[in-house]
Amino acid sequence: MIDFVRQFVDFTDEEITVAHHLFEEKFIKKGSYFIQAGEHNTAIGFINKGLMRSFFIKNNQETTFQLSLENQFVTSMSCYVLNQPSTDYIQAIEDTDICVIDKAALETLCNQFHNWDKFGRLTYQQVALEQEVRLRSFIAETAQERYERILKEQPALIHRVPQVYLSNFLGITPQSLSRLRRNIR
């Protein structure tokens, strides 16, 4: 995580040392949860190694809306921003090594060090941009175009995410994803 954050902001050794003591490293086994619906969990996790999916359940049907790999942050925005119980689940698709910090500790860090506040803003802007691109893709692109975008921009997802989750993320059935893959080959 330290190498990753230093790519964006020129942190001092003190800023890194203080932050290091506030983050807790956790190991989440494949199939286990970082956050579950109904929990009040304001933590943010940084994925060092592994893969996670964020999803919600409505009418007994899961909808995967985010797939997160190494060097990405995960959290339940309803918990973090609105201080409400989560409506989502965040589950490890692979064994996942994650650095976790709770909201209060992160806010203290941002208040104490301008560089952490700057990094938070940059990260939030990137997440907002990614969400806008995803929303636009569902409005303006076909499923094949969405698949080709992932293939080009995040090929690791194609190879590491089980077909049932990837198809759900694309908004299609697993059978449709199989047809898409055959047509693209």
Protein described:
A four-stranded antiparallel sheet has the order 1-8-3-6. The longest helix is centred in the C-terminal third of the chain and has 27 residues, at about 115-140. The radius of gyration is 17 Å and the shape is globular. The protein contains nine helices and eight strands. It is of the alpha+beta class. Helix 4 crosses helix 5 (about 115-140) and helix 8 packs across helix 9. Strand 4 and strand 5 form a beta hairpin. It has a domain at about 1-115: Jelly Rolls, CATH 2.60.120.
Describe the structure in brief:
With 185 residues, the chain is of the alpha+beta class. Helix content is 50%, strand content 22%. It has a domain at 2-113: Jelly Rolls (Sandwich).
| CATH homologous superfamily caption of the domain at 2-113 | Jelly Rolls
Kindly state the number of beta strands. Answer: 8
Largest sheet, described in full?
4 strands, antiparallel
Can you identify the CATH class of the domain at 2-113?
Mainly Beta
Strand content: 15-25%
Order of helices and strands: HHEEEEEEHEEHHHHHH
Task: Please give the CATH architecture of the domain at 2-113.
Answer: Sandwich
Cα shape = globular
Mean pLDDT, rounded to whole units? 92
Radius of gyration: 17 Å
- Strands side by side in the biggest sheet: 1-8-3-6
Q: How many helix segments?
A: 9
CATH names the topology of the domain at 2-113 as: Jelly Rolls
Structural class assignment: alpha+beta
Question: Which regions have little confidence, pLDDT < 50, spanning 5+ residues?
Answer: none
End-to-end distance: 36 Å
Helicity level, as a percent range? Answer: 40-55%
